[in-house]
């Protein structure tokens, strides 16, 4: 597959860098890569960073960085973008230095999300280390993880043409489920390498550009330990432990300090394009992934706290 090779990094504009440091490093087990005036980078592997948080009021996704396999491939993508009437600009040396890449090109997808197409993403000078993890984060040829973006009414044909015809993504599968009377979740999942999906799109009622970003770990015990750390810290959850039917990810969803979520998972399925068959599935989760308020109702007590129920002291 030529063109985009992986989701290399994401940039978030966040209102509280200290909260994000506690969340990403303290709870999720990432390593602080660098701290500067108004920004902080977080590492999950040998790269200089995978998440970059810059200070600002948006509390939302600011940019997605996609690694392209070569300069000639990037030139071809730029030509396709301009041929389709999409605005493209060269990022210049200052931005390339800040993002720690050799070259950077800036464009936007049909949803208005800023995309940074890059070559030569830099490794850090020191090995990755996390005191919290038993294993490691799963990146490598699969990139930083995946993101699920809110399509906000933009037609599927329009954004699929952009991501598939220009950037070279392929459809993994679809999930269509009526999650409440009259409310249908209709999500399409796309891949650019063996990771089941690097990006997905759903037309869902959500105030942010991003519904969630997924990070994967190599040791299932790290999912449970991160779950406990988030509970102990009383970090708000979006969904409990569960598993998806398409990528087979065992995971939970926890809210970031900026309001969108992180999926923290293990065991994601890899795709072989020679044998993969696109399907439409009818459920977002095979089991679990329940909203905390549902668990609260079942247990009859406040969820995710260390306070025992009345009479149990």
TrEMBL record:
InterPro entries reported in the protein's UniProt record: Glyas_Bleomycin-R_OHBP_Dase, Glyas_Fos-R_dOase_dom, VOC_core, Xdiol_ring_cleave_dOase_1/2
Keywords: Aromatic hydrocarbons catabolism, Dioxygenase, Iron, Metal-binding, Oxidoreductase
SUPFAM superfamilies: Glyoxalase/Bleomycin resistance protein/Dihydroxybiphenyl dioxygenase
PROSITE patterns named among the record's database cross-references: EXTRADIOL_DIOXYGENAS, VOC
Tree of life domain: Bacteria
Keyword Iron tagged: yes
Gene3D superfamilies: 2,3-Dihydroxybiphenyl 1,2-Dioxygenase, domain 1
Presence of keyword Transmembrane helix: no
Pfam families, per database record: BphC_D1, Glyoxalase
Required cofactor names: Fe(2+)
Family membership noted in the UniProt record: Belongs to the extradiol ring-cleavage dioxygenase family.
Protein name: Glyoxalase/bleomycin resistance protein/dioxygenase
UniProt organism field: Actinomadura verrucosospora
UniProt lineage: Bacteria, Bacillati, Actinomycetota, Actinomycetes, Streptosporangiales
């Amino acid at each position: 597959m030529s063109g985009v090779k992986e989701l290399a990094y994401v940039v978030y504009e966040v209102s509280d860098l200290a909260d994000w440091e506690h969340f990403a490093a303290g709870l999720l087990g990432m390593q602080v890569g660098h701290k500067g005036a108004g920004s902080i980078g977080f590492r999950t592997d040998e790269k200089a960073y995978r998440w970059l948080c810059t200070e600002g009021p948006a509390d939302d996704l600011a940019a997605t960085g996609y690694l392209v396999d070569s300069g000639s491939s990037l030139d071809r993508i730029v030509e396709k973008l301009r041929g389709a009437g999409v605005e493209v600009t060269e990022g210049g040396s200052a931005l390339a230095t800040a993002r720690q890449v050799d070259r950077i090109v800036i464009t936007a997808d049909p949803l208005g999300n800023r995309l940074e197409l890059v070559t030569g993403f830099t490794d850090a000078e020191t090995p990755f280390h996390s005191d919290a993890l038993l294993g490691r984060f799963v990146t490598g040829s699969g990139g930083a993880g995946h993101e699920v973006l809110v399509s906000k009414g933009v037609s599927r044909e329009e954004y699929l043409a952009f991501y598939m015809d220009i950037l070279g993504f392929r459809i993994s599968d679809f999930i269509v489920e009526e999650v409440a009377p009259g409310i249908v979740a209709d999500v399409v999942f796309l891949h650019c390498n063996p990771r089941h999906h690097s990006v997905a799109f759903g037309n869902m009622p959500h105030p942010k550009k991003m519904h969630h970003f997924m990070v994967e770990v190599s040791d299932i015990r790290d999912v449970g330990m991160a779950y406990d750390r988030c509970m102990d810290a009383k970090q708000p959850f979006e969904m409990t432990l569960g598993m998806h039917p398409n990528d087979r990810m065992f995971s939970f969803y926890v809210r970031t300090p900026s309001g969108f979520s992180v999926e923290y998972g293990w065991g994601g399925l890899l795709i072989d394009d020679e044998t993969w068959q696109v399907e439409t599935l009818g459920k977002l989760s095979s089991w679990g992934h329940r909203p905390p308020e549902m668990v609260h109702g079942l247990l009859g007590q406040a969820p995710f706290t260390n306070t025992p129920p009345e009479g149990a002291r």
